[in-house]
Amino acid sequence: MKCSTLGIGLAGVGTVGSGVILALRRNGDLIRDRTGGAVDMQVTKALVRDLSKPRAVALPQEVLTTDWKELVADPSVDIVVELIGGTTDAFEIVAAALKAGKPVVTGNKALLAERGVELFALSKEHDTPIHFEAAVAGGIPIIKTVQESFIGNRIHSMSGIINGTSNYILERMTTAGLDFETALGEAQQLGYAEADPALDVNGWDAAHKAILLATLAYGFPIDPAMVHVAGIEQVRPIDIDFATRLGYVVKLLAVVREHPNGAVELRVQPSFIPKSHILASVNGVFNAVAVHGDAAGESLFYGRGAGQDPTASSVVADLVEAARSLRQATGHRGFLPYRESGQLLPIENTETASYVRFDVTDRPGVVAEIATELAKEGIGISGTHSPVNPESPDADFVDMVFLLHTCSFGKLQATLDRIEQLDCVNSSPVVFRIEKL
Ligand SMILES: NC(=O)c1ccc[n+]([C@@H]2O[C@H](COP(=O)([O-])OP(=O)(O)OC[C@H]3O[C@@H](n4cnc5c(N)ncnc54)[C@H](OP(=O)(O)O)[C@@H]3O)[C@@H](O)[C@H]2O)c1
Prior knowledge:
Layout: E1 6-11, H1 15-34, E2 41-47, E3 64-65, H2 68-73, E4 79-82, H3 89-99, E5 104-106, H4 109-125, E6 130-131, H5 142-149, E7 155-161, H6 164-175, H7 180-189, H8 198-201, H9 204-218, E8 228-229, H10 237-246, E9 248-258, E10 264-274, E11 286-293, E12 297-304, H11 308-327, E13 351-361, H12 366-376, E14 381-385, E15 397-408, H13 409-420, E16 430-434
Parallel strand pairs: 1-2, 1-4, 2-3, 4-5, 5-6, 8-10, 10-16
Antiparallel strand pairs: 7-9, 7-11, 9-10, 11-12, 13-15, 13-16, 14-15
The structure holds NADP nicotinamide-adenine-dinucleotide phosphate (NAP).
Residues 12-17, 47-50, 53, 83-85, 89, 107-108, 134, 138, 306-307, 311 line the site of NADP nicotinamide-adenine-dinucleotide phosphate.
């Protein structure tokens, strides 16, 4: 078989970009053998911000550039890999590559979730694919699973733990009794959390990934502004404590589910999940996605959701696929919208049982006041508790916890808005979903 070297234009030589270079050096021969000699790849141009920065992975000086236009236009570049992150320069690079007919590989979930509509349209217009396995769950081949392996399934649901940083923080809060700030500090020290961990802890990193999965499974572009996202910043040791006592584990859960009327439920929030469910034992920086297809039934995909080598593994797999498509035209393989009338289920219409924590002034009648408001809306209470701090049993302000029967989120939210106005309630109630998985 013909084997001429394909040139890679690598935009970004950071954590993942360096991993890609190392993986190609380590396993380039293996890839060549496994593809029957068809795929041989070499990084011929690499984009960085700072040419003088010392790098663990050395590249010849003439390969490096700080000008993305030079990288995309270079005739030695056949495939463009975008690993710089962000949604501005990254957008320009991907758009320019597609217009030049150069297949793109990216690990950038924020870019595709926020600006995927424009990029997938360009991909279609120029019949040039965007591959993005590394954008969701690092080394777990979940994009390929949804796009290819489950192509003959109607996907009923996908529930996932798809942000390793928040999962690590929640695990440390659970097993070591740390508070949120201490656990976050530990994650940063270990290099699991970014210096700016905002997208990890506010739920948006997981939401971007969930949006991509839902887009593939249900065939219509999803506006991020329509997605309900809550992060783990409000999780307190008391919530972890309650969850443990009640037989649950707190996880940042992404839920994607198709309803019988075709509407798609899509939300990300800290949730109580039963200790006995397999997702409850996904710990540390690991990710897992449970996919329920009408034919395949329930399948679980588990593995390393981030990090240099696992993410590079997905990028390299996409590179091989992009290289094959260049060698043998297989047509466009990015996301093609196929469902015109797709719609998200309004978050108000989603239903679960819930755990609600109130910060209240401790005086007689508080429980009754809150319970009365809940009863007015027919929201059932399955339990209530107010832990006493043994060091200050007469404290004026206490946490009060209610476990509530299943009701719509809209009804719950409206009732909580009213409860928040009560004199005895000092701040916005904190809600956790209790999931039936
Ligand atoms: N890290 C992970 O585990 C992981 C997992 C899955 C997906 N991803 C995604 O992969 C992408 C890359 O992540 P990373 O962790 O590898 O990032 P990173 O370590 O911060 O590396 C970014 C690289 O891009 C270069 N760069 C950034 N902005 C640039 C610009 N405007 N112009 C030119 N070069 C620029 C940087 O240059 P300098 O080296 O000169 O600073 C650096 O080489 C992101 O989209 C991320 O979401 C990462």
